[in-house]
């Protein structure tokens, strides 16, 4: 069971959509997928144009794809106490709360849940909490060794030497969910899948009026199974999707709405990052309702990008954001 998340799925995405499966529901056109993508083409063709893309196999040279198993997590960090999120649900985040647990005990929960789910002894809604959006180095302090060969050329130069300091870790059971939302600092987002698969449902930020926003960045619509009686405007939304598999990288431009479902027990990490232009837009978003705390973090990054102060010197002022439950 220790390598549970690294098994090849027995069924493909198309057969996951069955009655009683919360991932069943509406299908959308896919976003573009590239097998290879140079950094020049990435920045000119996708970042500059605000277009999402999946890069297949971006992590294939990294030992982490084979090394990050439950056994490895137990050896490295099993005795650490971690903060888990309970209440990320199809209905929204009104019931969101955090739960403290020892990582080894959480891994035991995940291992016990999967066979009970497959034998119908447990329902998807009764899944364990989600180890969601926490500093990667707090879980895997030697991650740099496991990520040799990482494609850091997909980051702007300011971030490149220190990208690992900005990385956030995700681990959760099958059916783990983050409901429809956008990233709270309006950053660019590079998302990397290490084990298992995740389905992303994506909308450009200009589709927000169709999505019934609340609490600044969350949306009422269940993008997997939209209720057009409650949310009729969502019929007009332009929606796309993708499935990220082990080794894949997904790029999402600033403000992109995304609804994320784990199709397997999954390990992932991501890095939120700014350009000068996006950091300034993030500061100006104060006028559109961005919380003042978020504006502060955008200002910190903007000062570094615009003045040439290194990311290393800026990080002490930004680090609290990486543990920010928004």
Q: How would you describe this protein?
A:
By secondary structure, the chain is of the alpha+beta class. It contains nine helices and 15 strands. The strands form four sheets. A seven-stranded mixed sheet has the order 1-2-13-8-15-6-5. Strands 7-14-9-12 form a four-stranded antiparallel sheet, with no helix packed on it. The chain is globular and about 55 Å long. The two termini are 33 Å apart. Mean pLDDT is 91; it is low at 1-20.
Write the topology of this structure.
Layout: E1 33-34, H1 39-47, E2 53-55, H2 64-67, H3 70-77, E3 81-86, E4 97-102, H4 103-118, E5 131-135, H5 136-139, H6 143-146, E6 167-172, E7 177-181, E8 188-195, E9 198-203, E10 213-214, E11 218-219, E12 240-244, E13 249-252, E14 257-262, E15 266-273, H7 276-284, H8 292-307, H9 311-318
Parallel strand pairs: 1-2
Antiparallel strand pairs: 2-13, 3-4, 5-6, 6-15, 7-14, 8-13, 8-15, 9-12, 9-14, 10-11
Helix pairs in contact: 7-8, 8-9
- Poorly predicted parts: 1-20
**Distance between the amino and carboxyl termini:** 33 Å
Secondary structure class reads alpha+beta
| Shape by Cα distribution | globular
Helical residue percent? 10-25%
- Mean pLDDT, all residues: 91
- Sheet-strand content, in percent, reads 15-25%
Gist of the model:
The chain is α+β, with helices and mostly antiparallel strands. Helices cover 24% and strands 23% of the residues.
List descriptors:
326 residues, 7-stranded mixed β-sheet, 4-stranded antiparallel β-sheet, 15 strands, 24% helix, globular, disordered N terminus
